[in-house]
Design a protein that fits this description.
There is one protein chain. The longest helix has 30 residues, at about 195-225. It contains 20 helices and no strands. Helix content is about 60%, strand content about 0%. With about 525 residues, it is mostly helical.
Length: about 525
């Protein structure tokens, strides 16, 4: 007597066959995330990678423009197929010399350092007698970059206040002009002690900028005027007000033929940090203080919380008891005060007198720097230094290599363009799916769990084993189609038809379904 050995129900047959049940394939195994993968994902999703790659792409496009503008490169391209090495060498030298000159004009003048050191050694000097003068020559471009960045950082801090409060302040130029006018007028008209004179001149610039920004804030709070339109119009009003003032006796004194003001008094000037041979002044400390004040105001103060609440959701802020109208007025007044301080620092520390071009492009560059720095203190400082370096380095690049200064403006615009479109940057570097996480996993899961294709048989016939494959034939025109099933059609022996399977009561019937008996015959 033999003993039967029990085998699993699924032995020798496909899952679900003979049991009437339907088994879905197991879900794909999730790959365990390691600390390295999480760090890489955080870097890929962060702003730092976007900012760095934005500059890389901007400088690559700038390199193409440098090559196009170089006459020597264009000449070598004329016989490129005869001697391609000449063209490659010319392109490399053109790009590297141009950007090398930009670095020399913005950060450190290496050739100037070496030249001064060699001259002093030839004259018999040694030690610190050689080192300090050579360093002064080599670091002079860096001091110029810091000087240009000082008012830019202060003005950008004011722009960041309005941006984080949800207001797009375009009035930086006008607020800077009135701040410079007030500080300059106090500086060359009043006669006060040295410290008091400087403090009152700075305070005058702050108050003038706050009033000018407060006008736009009042128009928005009281009448609902759009701050973009009002601040742009106030820019023009301030510009022509400066033109008019420089033609009056109050601002020009006896020299009314030339549209410049008298020089400010020494008691109102910001002291130089490295002596009279350098333009770097104490306004650099004010710029660092403004960055710290921006952090405290927007992150630690009650007023900053109200600014951010209104910028995030004005309706919710109103429900919480915060007046959006009052907050809008205060935001633009505070922003105008900081930009007015930038104008005062610019005229008291760098220009020392009022001219028609006193504002330059600082007002509009501050908007770019604030956006580039994500309206944060650290980002604003770094972006301000970078834009100042591009400005000072671009001027040296133009005089030393003949590259047009307009190229710097192109690079700045490209940087802003790329930073404004992070998905574009990630697509260019092959990280497109970072902006749509989980898409690949969902697609793979859908493909894994997709039902098998429907099989069809002729009336009274059996289902062939390869009915679900692309080589299977199509059913006859008069044969009713068999309802689709989740059961794999290639299960079981190759020469036998499928075993009897009861219909699935959970699947809804369709109009094309016809009942069949257990033998597969049509009723």
């Amino acid at each position: 007597m033999s003993t039967a050995v029990d085998e699993p129900a699924s032995s020798g047959s496909a899952p679900g066959v003979g049991s009437g049940g339907t088994e879905t394939p197991p879900p794909p195994e999730e790959r365990a995330e390691t600390s390295l993968s999480r760090t890489l994902q955080r870097i890929a999703r962060g702003d730092l990678l976007v900012v760095v790659m934005s500059f890389v792409f901007a400088f690559l496009i700038g390199s193409v423009l440098i090559v196009i503008a170089d006459e020597e490169v264009r000449a070598t391209l004329g016989y490129f197929f005869d001697r391609p090495s000449d063209a490659v060498t010319a392109i490399w030298q053109s790009v590297t010399h141009a950007y090398g000159a930009m670095f020399r004009g913005a950060v450190f003048d290496g050739p100037g350092f070496a030249r001064v050191a060699e001259d002093l050694r030839d004259a018999g000097g040694s030690g610190t007698y050689v080192l300090f003068p050579a360093l002064a020559t080599g670091l002079r471009p860096l001091t110029e970059t810091l000087t240009v960045a000082t008012p830019l950082i202060i003005a950008s801090a004011g722009m960041a206040v309005s941006f984080r409060a949800g207001l797009f302040n375009i009035g930086g130029t006008g607020q800077l002009i009135v701040g410079a006018m007030a500080a300059g007028y106090i500086g060359f008209t009043w006669n006060l002690p040295i410290v008091v004179h400087l403090l009152l001149a700075l305070l005058g610039g702050v108050l003038a900028g706050a009033v000018w920004g407060g006008i736009a804030g009042f128009l928005k709070a009281r009448f609902g005027a759009n701050e973009v339109i009002s601040t742009i119009m106030l820019n023009w009003i301030a510009t022509y007000l400066l033109f008019f003032a420089l033609k009056t006796a109050a601002f020009t004194g006896a020299n009314q033929a030339q549209p410049t003001s008298p020089s400010i008094a020494d008691s109102a000037a910001l002291p130089h940090l490295l002596g009279s041979g350098f333009r770097l002044h104490a306004g650099l400390f004010l710029a660092a203080g403004c960055a710290a004040a921006l952090w405290w105001l927007m992150s630690r103060s009650t007023l900053g919380f109200q600014f951010r609440a209104v910028g995030s959701n004005p309706r919710a802020a109103r429900v919480a008891g915060i007046s959006p109208a009052r907050t809008s007025f205060l935001v633009l007044a505070v922003a105008g005060a900081l930009v007015g301080l930038a104008g005062a620092v610019h005229v008291l520390g760098t220009e020392k007198r009022l001219t028609e071009g006193i504002a330059g492009s600082i007002g509009f560059d501050a908007i770019t720097v604030a956006l580039l720095g994500r309206s944060g203190p650290v980002g604003i400082v770094l972006a301000g230094l970078l834009f100042a370096g591009l400005s000072t380095g671009g001027r040296f690049m133009e005089t030393n290599q003949g590259v047009p200064l307009d190229l710097v403006q192109v690079i700045q615009v490209l940087v802003v363009l790329f930073i404004a479109a992070p998905p574009l940057v990630r697509t260019l570097i092959g990280l497109r799916r970072i902006d749509h996480p989980g898409v690949g996993a969902r697609v793979r899961r859908a493909r894994t769990t997709a039902p098998a294709p429907a099989a069809s048989t002729a009336a009274g016939g059996a289902v062939p084993p390869d009915a679900g494959t692309p080589d299977a034939g199509t059913p006859d025109a008069g044969s009713p189609a068999e309802p689709p099933s989740d059961t794999p059609l290639d299960a079981g022996p190759a020469d036998d038809p499928l075993p009897d399977t009861p219909p699935d009561p959970t699947r809804p019937a369709t109009d094309g379904d016809e009942p069949t008996d257990a033998q597969g015959d049509q009723r």
